[in-house]
Amino acid sequence: MVKKVNTQEFQNEAMKAPVAVVDFSATWCGPCRLLAPILEDVSEKYEGKVAFFAVDVDESPELAMQYRVNSVPCLVLLKDGVFADQSVGFRPEPQLTAWIDNNL
Prior knowledge:
Blueprint: E1 2-4, H1 7-12, E2 19-25, H2 30-45, E3 51-56, H3 61-66, E4 74-79, E5 82-88, H4 93-103
Parallel strand pairs: 1-3, 2-3
Antiparallel strand pairs: 2-4, 4-5
């Protein structure tokens, strides 16, 4: 499950997860809407290994700036709260899972 979080929840949950994928997106973004159901499917495959979160860049612009999100969708992978990698743009499921696997 991908959990939508605000800035406070991000600090309390995403930053404390051993491995987290954070989807920085916006409601007006077409590729973001295409990526959302794929992320839901992928999150089920990695349940117990990777935590998935969604951040709306319009609702949490400070987080977007902190992680240098210049375009959406932008996936940020955190390990123990530390930035590990970033993926910008839409990716089909096989590319997305390969990106996650390469960072585990």
